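Researcher: Last one for today. Full complex below.
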Amino acid sequence: MDINPDTWILLDWNGWHINATIAFTWGVMAVLVVASWLITARLSDGENVSRWQVMLEVIVTGIRDQIAEVGTETPGRYLPFIGTLFLFIATANILTIIPGYRPPTGSLSTTSALAICVLIAVPLFSITQQGLGSYLRGYLRPSPFMLPFNILAEATRTIALAVRLYGNVMSGTVIAGILLSIAPFFFPVLMQLLGLLTGLIQAYIFAVLAMVYIASASRAGPHHTHDPAPEPSRNEGE
Amino acid sequence: MRPRRRGADTVQFDWITITAQIANFLVLIWLLKRFLYAPITDAMARREERIATRLSQARLARAEAEHEAQVLSDSRKALKEAWEEELRKARQDAAALRKQLQDEARNEISQQREGWLAQAETERADTLHDIRLRLNKQVFTVVRRVLSDLADTKLTSQVANAFTRQLETLAPEQREKLADTIRKDDRAVVESGLDLPSATRSHITRAIHQNLADGAEVTYRLDRSLLLGIRLTIGQMTIEWSAGRHLEKLEKAASEAIEAEFAEARR
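Model: Here's the assembly. Have a good evening.
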């Protein structure tokens, strides 16, 4: 059985191949964008608000509140990045209820891509907020001796983020396949349900971790000398 | 139909896919920002702004209403206070007016009473005065009548005796004066209230001759007004002893006393 949608080539054209990861990612994107467009095309700022708009508002406000809870003063600044992380992963995981669908988050390429995005976003946000010099000086804290460890921490953080998401989603698929061969009919259904739950949790953890990394990096500036928020333990959801 | 496989079922990094996914993710961020976050946050911001505007308007309206209510309440209070003040003033005025009217009435009554009392007193004094005068007159009238009724020859001779004693006891200078007058005139007139008997006449004539001028002519006349009395007239001078004259003097003195007392009472 396939556990890696990267190896599932849907279209091959002049040496360019479109694998399932990319195709399903486009599908998820299409679902998100079209749904958003359909709802936000008829937005109301009065008293009568449609249920769909309320749903979107709840989601957006919830994400914003979560970002604010991590400790940033301007949640609107991080909303597109963190929100998109959460929405993409959550939607990609929830859509597993559709037969034949394979979540793109089950591919290490996708999770790596997202982790790389976080890896780039953390210094980017930090630099735009406090300047390049201040960000670079953060690597020398508390002493220049810590520079290699700080760089190592940055790299392992990104890898951990990627592998965590990949492992969780892929494991869901693997467990479903194994159970299907051992005990068909009943257990796979339960595992699908469990997969929905872990998929949402993973989306939440990924987004919150990204935000924590960004926030701690931003706080490491000269004006924020207090300790960064404690990172969530490394084994949640696993 | 089974899809074609590329490679084995191994975990591997497909850098092309990773790059494509990064691009996809960035595109998704842009799209969602364009179609989801911006419109939703804008709409919420607009709604919040509108709610805030309405709330502030409501607050303003409420403040205005409260202000109006306060103004109304103040004006009502002021009106009530003014009304109470007016009422109090009116009551005070009424009380003052009543007191003034009472005082005026009391004064008027007291003045009237004093006037009445004074008038009554005056009337009483007048009446008393009249009564006294009338009584005085009556008394002397009665006395005169009694005297005229009682007057007889004997009494007349007693009067003549009294007259002659008066002549005898005249002051020397008066006697001298009378004697001078009678010497020039050589004539004396004796008037009496009753007809004098001849003995009495001669007694009188003798007394005149002895005391004043010897040989002077003495004429006798009757004058009822003398009542009981005798008057000697020599030229412009007279000597008289008369009950009528005494009574007149007495009456005059009594009248003067009554008048004086009346005047004193008037004052």
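The interface with chain A takes residues 3-14, 17-22, 24-29, 31-33, 35-37, 39-41, 43-44, 46-47, 50 of chain B (CB under 8 Å). Residues 1-9 of chain B have pLDDT under 50 and may be disordered.
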